[in-house]
Amino acid sequence: MIESCELFLDVQQSGGGGHAGILQPGFFPMLEPLFGSGAFDDGGHRFAVFAARVSGLGSALRECWSGMRAASPQGRLPTDGPLGVEVADAGRAGSHRIQHHITVQREDQWLALLSHHMLSLPVESEIRIAWIRCDRLSTQWVPSWPSPSHALSPEVFPEVMACYFGVESPLLRVCMGSPIPDSTRPRICDAYGIQLGLAMLPGGGFTDQHDTILDRILKTATEMSLATDREPRAMFASVIPAAVLAPSGDKRLGIIPDFDARGIPGQVRGAVGSAARRFFDVKTLHRATKYYGQVAARYVRAHAVQARAVAVPVEYAAAARRLDETHHGISREAVRVGELAPGPIVRTLRALPTVIGLVFGSSGEASDSVHDLISIMATRGAQLSWRSMGARTPAEARGFLVARIRRDWGITAVRAHAQLLISRRQYVGLSREQAAAAAGTRGALRAAVEHEAVAPEAFEVGMVPEAGPMGGPAGAAQ
Question: What is the rounded average pLDDT of the residues 413-419?
Answer without folding.
Answer: 96
